[in-house]
Amino acid sequence: MREEQTLSLYDLTIHEVADLLRRREVSAVEVTRAVLDRIHQVERRVGAFVTVTEDLALEQARLADQRRAGGDATPLTGVPAIIKDVICTKGVRTTCSSRMLERFVPPYDATVVQRLQAAGFVMVGKSNMDEFAMGSSTENSAFFPTRNPWDLERVPGGSSGGSAAGVAAGEGFYALGSDTGGSIRQPASFCSITGLKPTYGRVSRYGLVAFASSLDQIGPMTKDVHDAALVLNAIAGADTWDATSLPTPVPDYTQALIPDLKGLRLGVPKEYFAEGVTPEVAGAIREAVRVLEGLGASVDWEVSLPSTRYALAVYYIIAPSEASANLARYDGVKYGFSAEAETMWEAMEQTRQHGFGPEVKRRIMLGTYALSAGYYDAYYLKAQKVRTLIRREFEEAFRRYDALVTPTAPTVPFKLGEKLEDPLAMYLSDVCTIPVNIAGIPGLSIPGGFADGLPIGLQIIGPALSEETLLRIGYAYQQATDWHTRRPTL
Ligand code: GLN
């Protein structure tokens, strides 16, 4: 009996393993060993991690067992997690999958890491990502691409591809990701897991290496909605170290998990089924909406959000502009990679030339251009105005609907290399997720079906601070469907 449980431990959800831990059927050390064994078994094929922190994990697991013995446990105590390598971890290198930070060891923990530590978590490693979170396939990692556990010839999505693939493959029970334009939700969709981008300001960004500060947000990547609520409980809330964090009290998100949708009004915006969305994705999402309707929600199938078509363009002005400012700090002087040269200017040039990969350079050039004198009004200022329009259009819609339901990504996972030569095609992977960041509102992606064995993600979008509604909808859907219980065969 015990043998059998141990063998499949890594497949469980947080709430399932927390039950076993609570009943003392397993110890945190056993759970952690099971996950570390799984990592040894599959990691060579998946490539989810930049760094595996085996010794640290076992030490934290022993502490978790002591803590539980002392009667001081949370549902996350002793449960192994993966942290995206854009989130600072004291004493553990944090690379952003960039040569620039390959040897950077932060002297402090991000607030989210401190909060997970306070909950008694176990960190098994830091996950691979697109360099500085710029990308949609994890192929922009300076180190190696991560592969999709559902089909190793395909990408896991990005930029939190290592986090998503790791959770799907059982190399951790959950992960933290970051989402600037879709980087939690799109890989969650591609790997058939649950991913939540919270409202801007709901989770502290202190210790998150900045990409585009007005869009970045940290969130949970889990095996189901119940787990997302547990992780959000631990990481959400005001933080004096992040002035943009919201003072609104944090509810117990698990209280929102009820299995019916009576009284909820849902809208299906037609712009999210436009060009680029494949028929199998559109079909699966419509099918999923019918399930939600069956659970008691009322559905308006004819919603229109006309500004949606400008969102991608707005994002590719605003995000690179902010990135060009944020990445100016990598000058070879303060920290990170530093090239040797005759003069200071040469050293700086060499540092940036060799430290950054091609996509990061492209973003810096785009942003610098959009912000330069003479172009500022035409690009950056205009993008900010359209950003306001997009935000207002959502506000307007949320007067009539509690949530909107859309595909997360327009396609199933694509093949490695397929979009590498064509940045625009790559950027289009995020058409459905980017508007949510632009408006600063929350978005949840949950498994919504498969086409030829490849995952399809369902996105649920709500107004600011509607995480409880989104989790309720996702939970009810997962009570009625079993997509989220399927695991890839590796
Ligand atoms: N794929 C988008 C980009 O490349 C979004 C990335 C993200 O959310 N970090 O910018």
A few lines on this structure:
The chain has helices at residues 2-8, 14-22, 28-46, 54-69, 111-118, 161-168, 185-191, 225-235, 279-294, 311-326, 344-355, 358-371, 377-400, 423-427, 434-439, 467-480, and strands spanning 49-52, 80-84, 122-127, 174-178, 194-197, 218-222, 265-269, 298-303, 403-407, 443-451, 454-461. With 490 residues, the protein is α/β, with parallel strands linked by helices.
Task: Note down, in words, how this protein is organized.
By secondary structure, the chain is of the alpha/beta class. It has one domain (9-266, 399-485): Amidase signature (AS) enzymes, CATH 3.90.1300. The protein is built from 16 helices and eleven strands. It has helices spanning 2-8, 14-22, 28-46, 54-69, 111-118, 161-168, 185-191, 225-235, 279-294, 311-326, 344-355, 358-371, 377-400, 423-427, 434-439, 467-480; strands at 49-52, 80-84, 122-127, 174-178, 194-197, 218-222, 265-269, 298-303, 403-407, 443-451, 454-461. The protein has an eleven-stranded mixed sheet, sandwiched between helices. Strand 10 and strand 11 (454-461) form a beta hairpin. Helix 6 runs parallel beside helix 7 (185-191), helix 8 runs antiparallel to helix 16 and helix 10 packs across helix 13. The radius of gyration is 21 Å and the shape is globular. 56% of the residues are buried. It binds glutamine. Glutamine binds next to loops.
